[in-house]
Structure formats: C-alpha cells, structure tokens
Amino acid sequence: MGNSFGHLFRITTYGESHGGGVGVVIDGCPPQLEISAAEIQFELDRRRPGQSKITTPRKETDTCEILSGVFEGKTLGTSISIFVPNKDTRPQDYSEMAVKYRPSHADATYDAKYGIRNWQGGGRSSARETIGRVAAGAIAKKILKQVANVDIVGYVKRIHDLEGIVDPHTITLEQVESNIVRCPDSECAQRMIEKIELIRREGDSIGGVVECVARNVPKGLGEPVFDKLEADLAKGVMSLPASKGFEIGSGFAGTLLTGSEHNDEFYLDDTGTVRTTTNRSGGIQGGITNGESIILRVAFKPTATIRKEQRTVTSTGEETILAAKGRHDPCVLPRAVPMVEAMVALVLCDHLLRHQGQCHTLKP
Amino acid sequence: MGNSFGHLFRITTYGESHGGGVGVVIDGCPPQLEISAAEIQFELDRRRPGQSKITTPRKETDTCEILSGVFEGKTLGTSISIFVPNKDTRPQDYSEMAVKYRPSHADATYDAKYGIRNWQGGGRSSARETIGRVAAGAIAKKILKQVANVDIVGYVKRIHDLEGIVDPHTITLEQVESNIVRCPDSECAQRMIEKIELIRREGDSIGGVVECVARNVPKGLGEPVFDKLEADLAKGVMSLPASKGFEIGSGFAGTLLTGSEHNDEFYLDDTGTVRTTTNRSGGIQGGITNGESIILRVAFKPTATIRKEQRTVTSTGEETILAAKGRHDPCVLPRAVPMVEAMVALVLCDHLLRHQGQCHTLKP
Amino acid sequence: MGNSFGHLFRITTYGESHGGGVGVVIDGCPPQLEISAAEIQFELDRRRPGQSKITTPRKETDTCEILSGVFEGKTLGTSISIFVPNKDTRPQDYSEMAVKYRPSHADATYDAKYGIRNWQGGGRSSARETIGRVAAGAIAKKILKQVANVDIVGYVKRIHDLEGIVDPHTITLEQVESNIVRCPDSECAQRMIEKIELIRREGDSIGGVVECVARNVPKGLGEPVFDKLEADLAKGVMSLPASKGFEIGSGFAGTLLTGSEHNDEFYLDDTGTVRTTTNRSGGIQGGITNGESIILRVAFKPTATIRKEQRTVTSTGEETILAAKGRHDPCVLPRAVPMVEAMVALVLCDHLLRHQGQCHTLKP
Amino acid sequence: MGNSFGHLFRITTYGESHGGGVGVVIDGCPPQLEISAAEIQFELDRRRPGQSKITTPRKETDTCEILSGVFEGKTLGTSISIFVPNKDTRPQDYSEMAVKYRPSHADATYDAKYGIRNWQGGGRSSARETIGRVAAGAIAKKILKQVANVDIVGYVKRIHDLEGIVDPHTITLEQVESNIVRCPDSECAQRMIEKIELIRREGDSIGGVVECVARNVPKGLGEPVFDKLEADLAKGVMSLPASKGFEIGSGFAGTLLTGSEHNDEFYLDDTGTVRTTTNRSGGIQGGITNGESIILRVAFKPTATIRKEQRTVTSTGEETILAAKGRHDPCVLPRAVPMVEAMVALVLCDHLLRHQGQCHTLKP
C-alpha cells in the first residue's frame, strides 16, 4: 500500500525509471475544477531532467497525457489518470550496477526486501517516480488557490555551506524561477551554481536545504492526534528521495530558546482576526493551522550516485570498486523544489477536504 | 480519522486530560503473544507525571487496565483495549484558560477548527493523550524483541544548549533510566537537571533533542514510495506534542558533506552479510532498512504553558495578559523519551507485519 | 484492521462476551453535536439481552458510559469513547465448549486462524460485540436526522416462513417497537412470537429476514466504483453475526423481470424534482443515492448455538456430541433490527461526510 | 477514495467508457511472481465486448499493456500498472443521452452528485471500468493458485427464470467456457441463449444469477468483526455494475431451516482434518474460512439501457421519451462471470496477505 498518499484527496503512483513510463491516479478530486494538461505540464517542466546545465542531462520532455477523469476541460469527480512515457532510456549505462550495489542508494535494500529489482536506472527508487507527485500536486495547488488563494512557494535555501537570504513572506514563484538553482538570492545563487558545476566536474555531489512557505492557508486544517498537519507534512517530504531531515517553524534552532522567548504571542489585527506577533510555530499549533504562513525546511543529502570510485559489494557477495556511470544530478536541490511544493500541496488539499467533511457537514 | 496510526498493526486512541480517562485500541496484534499489564505499566511509569522533581507534579499513577483482547495472559488476535482513568484532575486551575488562549498552545486552533474545546487541562491536546501510544508501544516492543531481538533505546541528547555524549551502539535502557532527565551522560545530566530546576523557578520552560536508536532491525522494512520507513518514522514522532523537527542518520548536518564523504561504503562482514562501514543513512536506504542501526533525532520546543506573563487574546475577542496556572512540565524531554520509543516501535511493528504479508506469502 | 469501519466517520470496536466489557471509539464525528448518554442508551436498550421472553435471558443492562469526546453535552470533534461493562457473565456455562466446537459457530475457525480463543461465551464472535456498532449508530442517526431529517427504520419482515406485510414508506419506529418481535404487522407478529417460543422449547432455533428503509436520504451519497453505496451497505450488514444474504431494492426477485419491467421511469414532481415512478433501484442508481427511499433486506440464519444434540469434534481432535448450554437467543431477528439500522446509519453518515468533503469544498 | 479496493493487496482503477482508456494500479503484490500479459489477457478476453452474438457488438480487443511493476517476467513488489486503450468509441451514439437520463442508469445520479458527467457511453459508470478489476484479478488468481492451489470458478446459474443444474464441487473452467452464456448445464444454456436473443430482438433486456465457488481456500482467512470474509466478498461483488443481491452458502433459503437443520456438523476426515458434513455456511464461519468451498451467488438486474421506449426526464428539467441507442448487452450475465471471479480473487488474495502478516509474524 506504500504507493498511495492521502485520504480524501488520494494519489497512487507507479512506474520505474526505465519501464514504459510513470504515472499517477488521483482519487477524490472535487468535480468541476477546470484543469488542462498545460497547467500540469508547467510543474512537470520545473521537475524534468535536462532543464539546465546543473541537472542530469537525461533528455526527457516528460510530456503528460490525461487518460481519464477530465471531460471538456473539467474534472469529473471520478479518478484522474495522468501518464508520462519514458523516452530517453539507456539501460546499458546501468549494466555494471546490475551487480554492484551503489553505496547509500536503494540497490541493496530493494534486493534484500524483494529478492528482485529493476536495476535499470534505479527502477522504482529513481527520482523519476516523483513525476506523479508533481502532476497531482499541480491539481492540488489549483484547488487550494481557488478555494482560499493559497500560495505555495519553495526555494533552495542552502547548497552545501552556501545559504541564501530569502523572505518567505514576500518571495514569489517568478523570483524562484529567475535562476537555474532556484535560490531567489541571486548573488548567492550564482555561487551555488558555480559550486555545483565544480562538484560535477569532480565526479562528486552535494546536498542542501529546501525551504517552502504556504501562505493564506485557512485556519483549522490538520487533525489531532496522529494526523497533525506537521506530521503529515513531515511524512510527505520525508518520502521524497534523498531527504534526511524536516523542520517546521523554529525547528531544531527553536530548542535553544526558552518558552517565553519561543511562544508566539497573540494579538487582534485591524479586522479583529486572531494573529501572532511572531511565527515560530510555523503556522501550526496543536497540529492545526492558525492562519499564519506555514514554513518548513527539508534537508537533502548529496546524490548517492557519483562517478568517483567507491568501495562496495556485488549482489553475488564479492567486494569490489564502483565508479558509477549513468546520467545523474550532481545536486538534487534545484529539481527538488517543485517536489517539495507538490507534497505540501497534496497534504494541504487532503486536509482541506477532510476538514470540510468533518466540520462543515453539520454547519455548512 | 486522525486518531488512528498504522495499517496492519493499528492503534486508535481517545481521551482528554480531564475527562473519564484515556485509552487505546490495538487492532491487528499477532495472536498468542504473552503480555501482562505489568509489562505495559513499566512503560507507562516512565511516561507518567509526578515521577521526579523536574516533571509536572500532577499525581497520576496511570494504572492501566486491559479491557479486552488478552485471555489467560496471551493476545487473542482480536482488538486489545487498554484504559487508564484520570484521577488527579483540577479543572478549576484552567478556568482562566477557558477564555484566554495560551500562546503557542492548541487552545486557539482547536476553537478555530471545531468551534468548541474542552479547556480543562488542554483536553485532547494534552500530552496525556500519549498514554495510549506508550501502552501500545510496549506491546509493539515485545513483538519486535521476540521476532528479531530488536532493541529500541531513546534518550535525551540535548537540553537547551547542553548536549550529552552518548554512543547509540552501546547505550542501554538501564543507563538511560539511571537519572531523572534520561540523559545517559551522567555529568551532563546533572547540569541539565539543574538548568531545568532553574527554569522552572523562573516560571519559564526549555526544550531540546531526543535521540533514539533501534538495533537489530531486520533488513527489508519500509515500503516505497510514500511509506518509506523514514517517512513513517517522521510522521510518528512529529505527531508527538511539542515536536518541531526530525532527522534520520546524518540529518541536516549531512548536507555539509559531499557525496563521496557522505556515502556509506559496503563491505562483507565475517558472516558474509552486506554491511556498511559508516552509517550516515541511519539504517535506512531507499526507504528500506539495511540492517544497520536506525538512528533518529527529534526536536522538542520549550513547553508552551508557562507561569511568566504573556500577551494574548480571549476567545471573545479581547487582548489581555496571561500568567498560566496549572501543573506543567518545565521541560518535556525526560517524559518524551518513552513517547519517541513508542512511536518508533509502532512504526517498526506495523512494517514488520506488512513486510511479512507482502514478501513472505509466496516464499514463507 | 478488521475492527474498524468507515473512513471519515470511522468506528473501532473491541471487547468480548466475557471480558471486562465492550466498547467503541468513534473518530471523525462532527463537532458541536448535542448528544447524551440517554440517547445512546435508547438504542442499546433495543439491542440488549433479556428484553423479552423471546430473547436470551442473560441479564445485562448494557449501561453505557461516555469516556471521552463529549464536553458539556456536545461533541468535541475528537475521538469519542463509549464503554459498556460486562456484568452477568457465566464462564462456567461454556466449559464444555472450551473443547467442543459448536457447529456453524466461530469456535473452530477462531482456533484455526489464531491458535487461541476466548471460549467463554463466544469471545469476540459473540453478538455482544455489536454494542459498539449500535452505540455509534445512535450518533450517526442523530447527525443524519439533523442534517437532512433522515429516518432509518428496520423491522422484522420474515421469521422462518412467516412473512409480515409492511409498507416501508410509512412505517414508524413506534409501530416497530409495539411488539417484542419487532414486526409491525401485529397479527403476523403474534404468530412469529408463538413460533419462536415453540422453537425455544424444542431446544432449536430459527432465522428470518430484516428489512430496513432509510427515507429522506439526500441525493449524491455513494462513490463509484468500489464504494458504491449498496456495496458499503452490503459490507456493513453482512458483517453482522449470522447474516447470510443481502438485497437492495428488487434484489433477487428483480432478476425475474425484463429491463422494461424493471427500470424506474423518471418524472418531475410538483417541485420540479427528478423522481422515479417506481423504486426497484432501492434508492440507489450507479452506486449513488437518487433521493428515493433506500430499501434493503438481510437474511439471518437460525442461531448456531442450540440445546439439541449435534455431532461435532473437539479441539483436541476427537469426534463427540454436543448439547450446548449457555443462554442464547432462539432467534436473533428481534435484536438484529437495531443492529441493521446502526450499520445503515454508519454507512450513510460516513458517505455524507465524504460527499461534503469532495463535492462541497469548491462549491460550498 | 472510492476507486481503490483492498488493503495489503490493493487496486486502484481509472478510466471511462469513451476516454483515453481504462486501467489499474496494483499495490502490494508479492515480488517474484511470474506473470505475463498473456495470462492477464486470457481473463480480459472472457470479459471483452463483442465476444459472442449475445453480448454488445462493440469491437474492442481490450489488449492490455503492463506499464510498470514487472521486470523480466516477474513482479518487482512495487506498483504494477496495466492499461487498456479504448479503440471503438462512438460518442455520437450517446448525444441523445447527453440530455436524457436513462431510467435506472447512473446518468441522473452522477449529475446530482458531481454536477457534471461524461455522457459518452456511460463514462465511469460503464461496465468498461471492470477491465481493471479483471486484470488485477488475474494476478490475484495466480497468487492464490501458487500458494494453495485455490480454484475460483464462476458460472451463470440462472438467466431470468431458466436455472441450470451445476455441481460447484466439480465444475471446471473448461465446462464453463464451453458455451457462450457460461452456464455449464449445456441443455439449459441453449435455452438461455435463445431467450437472450429473443429479448435482444425485442429491444429489451434480462438479468439473472451468477454463482461462484472457490475451492481449496486455506483455513483462517477473514478478520472479525467488520472485515469478515463474507462482508468483504459482499462488498466486492455488490460494487459490480447491475448487482442487486448477494448470498453466501445457504443464503436467503437458509432462513427457512431450523438451527438443527441448518448447522454444519463437524467430523474428522481420514487425515484428521476438521471438516463439515454439509456446507450451508458456504465455507465461512464467524467471518473466517473453514477450509470448505466458498459458495456465493450474485443477482444481476436486467441491463438498464434498452431500445424500448421509456418515459424519462432531461437534465434541463423536461419530461420526455427515450429509446436508447448505443451498443449494449441484452444480458450482462455471461460477461459478469469473470468479473465476479475477479472480485472473489481480489478479496481472497488481500486476506491471504493480511493473514500472513498478522498470524505468521510471530510463528512463521
């Protein structure tokens, strides 16, 4: 059941790096939403390989096709199927990895769990599986926008030790998309790009941190006690390939404050709305949104597949050396930005529908 | 549906701080497991209030009763119900909080979501709800122990800026329990205790980091792509009250390494088992356990409820000042240790059963 | 996971015939619903043993206690826990059944599945487990009543070969409750009662058919393609002890008509509402309610536990003879009526919330 | 969420009669199962339109493509995607039904629920959606066969008032497939075929009953209390288009027996296995399989879409007359046989994995 995510707005994905293609089925989408393949393609283009000199050179247009669930430009309320065929596959690049396990990759654990794996390009563990998430996320974003003008903006906050300065309250998609590393601090972005290119030339890789903000989120989303919004957000982004850490609001740094320093004091704004003077809660208190911006951060490790030589073992039980071939991102961060946004959108959309179901049936 | 957790090994909890009591129903527990109320009580005693001078003085023995699902000392395979009545309630302590929202607590968001809340002692948002998790976790731990000798040990890694030195590969429950703050670095523990007492006297609170290790975990647990083990672990611990961040293995610090520095190289040990020379993956690769120890960290913010005066608003729309009464932990960390362990055990046990179901039906 | 039912409005039950008691946790209940223990007790009293001379003489008041989720008479939106202790237990009556499997009962299959069973009074397979369903159903009924004035009325349609004449469009709860067999055809009811008493004296048992109608159900409930409303209703009632068959609308008899005879033609009523001239569909078309009354029937077999001698085997592998002791219903039908109503209410309430979530988020 | 079915072995379907195609995603399939497109195609061919003179003449080869989850002829353990494109679509045939609701079809209720529908060929309510079920069912059947030599055989038991004589204990697939109506009583089958042809010429339709047997089912499948096996079977088959009733074992007729007549007495067979002398339980007692054959029946109503004139209304609120065009089955029964088998297989396979997970983790 691990290939489904969400409850009322629920997605199920499939597909491997080098099979027929990858796709997603979306169940529970509200009916009569206007949606086009172009709107979905916009997000897929932000995720696709080969989009810039600092991503993998694999040439995929990732052109999506809506197979069901949309009629005359509108959602039907029944299950939506979106498919993206694989085009530029090179299984031969992976023949060495058919027997040699890549360190810190999923090769060995897939074999341990299933006793079989599609070794071509990582199979199901390839970041290519995130296409379905990003496609479904495009629809979730549109619903959130339409219902409450919700804005979800992700960006690269840090690459290795280079950290950008970004104001989550004002940052726009256009600013994020203004450079290929997706760090809207343009001066820092330039240094990030240079570092990634350097690392790539060395046959190595680096990681970093993506930050994501969701603004205008309605109050009341999230469910005690296990489906607290931050718990579902954590699960969503920690299921992305290469993620190693998650923070909401003040995160780990917040543990260095006392309660009196950390608490977000309440006040009433001009309209009489309850607001907080600070936002260390990151928009969520007691697992439920409070109307302030949701702010979260995700740590992504350096890409596991590198050209540099590493010691490893084979599936047949011999120690060996691997210098991985294939086409890989030297740094996943630029392409991880739309993935993080998608997961945030999926979580929020699911909870939006759930909240409507539970709390607006008796009092519409 | 937010009050259930897990799929095959599934728990559902209920109860408020000041209602009749709190409890848990466990569905899907393997039959014929020997279990006693005493074994569950052992874990509840580690969680209960009033256990030391640095926790809340609320006097609860948290004595559990097994209402169903166990017969002649063994599980029946049908649903297990465990109940703990509330004894030492003082609703009058909360009369001021019936109208004044505690900053960074759940008062305001519960009202926003539900239009109603049990203001006595935090209601459902009270950490008292974790009793059900810890009780069910005791059973999950026993299953894991019996099947694979799995050891789950949590401890306080840091209080505010005081960080202990602990070796996750050797640390034992006895060492953790050797002091009241549950940091097995005894010298550091002493300073932590002093700091917590100081903070309490000031009417303030502090936070910190719990680290947890799971040893001897079988290879193969976790499911691509959404139910990666780290994703479910993240959801589990981020659903605990006051948690603000999660890390697996190298976590955020791992983003400062290159791929060649970060990757865990493989080797074959004496028995021919595939092992890694380092463990920056934290025991999980591609979402699936690799047999190395699972190591994770959780950030807990300083307790929201403090005696110090804070600006806030009332539920009737007026700005005001609150100096919270009631009995609260100046620092949740010591009592959070068994909670983190319980969530880790619940996630592992659920995935153990799921793995057995999917991967050992054709090849038992 | 078999002890939970529903998705948004979800119940989890526990408890055996002879353990500490039985209960239910309700997750996802809308907040601010006024509900009292008395309203729940009303339904439990219709289900309880010992209510008349034609039911089991076990003396249980089945008095319920609300342990959580309700505050000052209103639901909180968080999980509701309702508990009913077992009082009048006689484990000694079952000592023979500890080794001898009752034919057509669950003794042998529980042993085969779990390798263990609580042989006292049937354990978890006892109809006593339906207390949780009926308690939760009382809340579901109230929500449905409040939102759309939905009326759910079940009644005994047939006992053995005695079939009553009942008009589902006008039948009332009062008429159903006017006699102890719950068949509102009073003349037929009298003969049913006599037959049950006769059968009881013979140490035998009989079965029959419960019919249930739900009126004023809003259009639009039910989800293609697996969660069609009739599919979820079928699952709900077929999970009741002793049920052997399910029909919706024309049911099996409808297969003897041609399409032109069977189809429900549409017309517009005075208010311009789309209605059907007949109702062979039983209120559901394409898995979705059409606004007409839902009408369904459930077959209940004769009670498995009888005093008459039967050939059977022991758990230790010997053929033997059993004449069952214990206190049992000679006919489950009168007490099955509130159980069927409860399952119908639970299904409708869950789908009401789901429909609200999916179809009223974009267009409230 | 209504487009998914099952828990551990879980399918999600999508597609409309006249969109790009229909398909299924299977999550949780055991790894290393040998499966080919041809094996799946075998079952799809039994379901496809145009297979004989008594089915709809729509020309679809229903050729399936495995898009993911299978590698070198074996399942990977990750999600399997199977797709069947729509080829022979004639939307123009349905232009009248774009405004006129077909009596007893899903047109009006889809509009009521979603405010939109794909009126071409019934959209999602078309029986074409069952392709995904049958494809997934082929895999489920293979697993059941491999693990326990389970045989699932469905057949037409009755068409209108013509009932065949069939022995469920010996009937084979070959016998069922020996004629186009799939009733293995060949003399009766001939009369059924004649009747269907007559009805078709009259522009009318008829229904009937499918019976299905599952032999060699292991003991222990099914979960108290809501996921009793008969409850999940009922849900599975009652979610099929046109189904109106369900029976397990003795069904409705069993209500005419007394307990002493109805109970299945136990005995020990030559191998010492606990068996029953009769099988009125239909292979399930207390919701759990007892090792005897599972026998169930499903009532299918006459096809709703008929050429004969019927009174109806338009979506714009006018009363009118409809004589439906399009290509439809005069009787769904022959093609319903593989659908019923598929649902039975899916339920059994899911419960097989669940049982393995819960009951064979501690005691493999």
TrEMBL record, chains A, B, C, D:
Which residues participate in NADP(+) binding? 47, 53
SUPFAM superfamilies, A to Z? Chorismate synthase, AroC (SSF103263)
What Gene3D superfamilies does this protein map onto?
Answer: Chorismate synthase AroC (3.60.150.10)
The pathway to which it is assigned is: Metabolic intermediate biosynthesis; chorismate biosynthesis; chorismate from D-erythrose 4-phosphate and phosphoenolpyruvate: step 7/7
Whether NADP counts among this entry's keywords is yes
Family named by the database record? Belongs to the chorismate synthase family.
Q: Output the lineage of the source organism.
A: Bacteria, Bacillati, Cyanobacteriota, Cyanophyceae, Coleofasciculales
Q: Name one GO biological process term.
A: aromatic amino acid family biosynthetic process
Q: Cofactor note, please?
A: Reduced FMN (FMNH(2)).
Q: Which reaction does it catalyse?
A: 5-O-(1-carboxyvinyl)-3-phosphoshikimate = chorismate + phosphate
Subunit comment for this entry? Answer: Homotetramer.
Q: What does this protein do?
A: This reaction introduces a second double bond into the aromatic ring system.
Enzyme Commission number(s): 4.2.3.5
Binding positions for FMN?
124-126, 286, 301-305, 327
Provide the cofactor list for this protein: FMNH2
Keywords of the record, alphabetical order, are:
Amino-acid biosynthesis, Aromatic amino acid biosynthesis, FAD, Flavoprotein, FMN, Lyase, NADP
Recall the GO molecular function terms of this protein's record.
chorismate synthase activity; FMN binding
Coiled-coil segments on the chain, per record:
none
Per UniProt, what is one Pfam family of this protein?
Chorismate_synt
Entry GO terms, CC: cytosol
Write down what this protein is called.
Chorismate synthase
